[in-house]
Amino acid sequence: MKKPLDTNEYIKDFPKDVQEKLEILRETIYKAAPGAIERISYGMPSFYWNGNLVYFAAYKNHIGFYPTASGIENFKEEFTKYKFSKGAVQFPIDEPLPLKLITKIVKFRAKENLQKSKNKKK
Predict the structure, then answer these.
(1) CA atoms lying within 13 Å on the CB side of residue 51
(2) Residues 56/66, Cβ–Cβ less than 8 Å
(3) Which of 11, 57, 58, 84 could form a disulfide with 79 if both were Cys (CB 3.0 to 4.6 A apart)?
(4) What are the sequence ranges of the domains in the chain?
């Protein structure tokens, strides 16, 4: 896959069923952080709001969601059915996305970034 110029280009390279999941994920992130700006970073869609917020990427068997280490650490108890690491969680491609959990994580990250931004201004 060539490096995409934007999120639309990234998403269109996947099969229709995966495209639908990625669009739902994208919309969920926007609803949780309405002021977020989309970017392509590290070759995948990312969202920026007072700093890097979250990233996502599609793979053969899962959708990777990257809410940074703090996003994982604060919600790891809710990842019991998913593979996860210090900065990522894998949502199986053949299961519904946990949209409520994703929303909570994005809101947490947005609040965290806002606080960091305020602290830098002091």
Answers:
(1) 15
(2) yes
(3) 84
(4) 7-97
Q: Cβ contacts of residue 89 below 8 Å, gap of 6+?
A: 64, 65, 67, 72, 79, 82, 83
* Distance between CA atoms of residues 22 and 44, nearest Å: 12
Chain center to CA of 66 = 5
User: How do residues 71-94 score in pLDDT, each as one tens digit?
Assistant: 999 999 999 999 999 999 999 999
CA dist., res. 80 & res. 22, Å (int): 22
Q: Mind listing the pLDDT tens digit for each residue in 25-61?
A: 999 999 999 999 999 999 999 999 999 999 999 999 9
Return d(Cα 117, Cα 87) in angstroms, integer.
21
Going by CATH, does the domain composed of 7-97 fall within 3.20.110.10?
Answer: no
Confirm if 42 and 55 have CB atoms less than 8 A apart. yes
